[in-house]
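Morning. Coffee machine broken again, so started the prediction first thing and wrote up yesterday's gels while waiting. Chain of 331 residues, entered below exactly as on the submission form.
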Amino acid sequence: MALGDWIEPRAEGIYIPAADAWVDPSRPVPRALVTHGHADHARGGHGQVHATPGTLAIMGVRYGDQAGVPVAYGETLRMGEVDVTFLPAGHVLGSAQILLEHRGERVIVSGDYKRRPDPTCAPFQPAPCDVFITEATFGLPVFRHPETHDELDKLLARLRAEPERCVLLGAYALGKAQRVIAELRAMGYDDPIYIHGALQRLCDLYVEQGVDLGDLRPATGEAKEELRGRLILAPPSALNDRWSRRLPDPVTAMASGWMRVRQRARQRNVELPIILSDHADWDELTDTIREIAPREVWVTHGREDALVHWCGLHQIRARALDLAGYEDEDD
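Came back before lunch.
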């Protein structure tokens, strides 16, 4: 029998018949195992959701109360004939890899993950397995993310250099915004940080979950003079809309792994690109595969062909999965 033939990758998600459960399904199902709270992995309407407490809290903010079963990191559940264990993924608050054990085989669905330190979530935990199902959002050799502090130093330097302006930083509402704030606090930046209203609920949730974000204030309603020399965070969609026009000559910045691609920065009219990703870069993807040493790698969610080719060059069996509905909500 083929390795992992009890796993059924379908367009709408990964189905495990022996557990009668789906991993990150893109449509409502009776039982869902959810890796993390981003909308391309966590959807509302499921009959029952198994996820970490952090992920369930995020889904509660986004979709209302869930019929949720909280699963702690390292806890193993028996579902039908399958043992299911949630392991930290290092992507955002509550993010998990899902280890599935059946018929003497171990399959890990990694969801989205990164290997860089992040003060807002538990670090990625490598675990041995027979099949490793990996994302490939930045699965090209051109994507090698710079050091986090070097990128944030650029942000702080711009604030100091032009005190009559403000820096308006686009950052995704879940994960990226809170990570930027927490990283800056760890670097000693204690000034108030102003946030767009769309970030408030999730920033509040992170604080409730024990992540210290320091002095956060709503940007809306503040006098223009008060915002000079300040850092303002907003969702990327707000960078060039009417809301931003009331700000004092903003330096438009964006925190994203895609800021490595100059054309993307130009398309968004980004003056100050900050290369900061919550996904593994090329070296982290390949180093993780080497460290885990699976017998097979299944690749999804991104640039599958390059990573499949790399696996072939290193005598690792690999194939691409064709899963629908995955978008780069958080990059």
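The longest helix spans residues 148-161. Going to sketch it on the whiteboard this afternoon.
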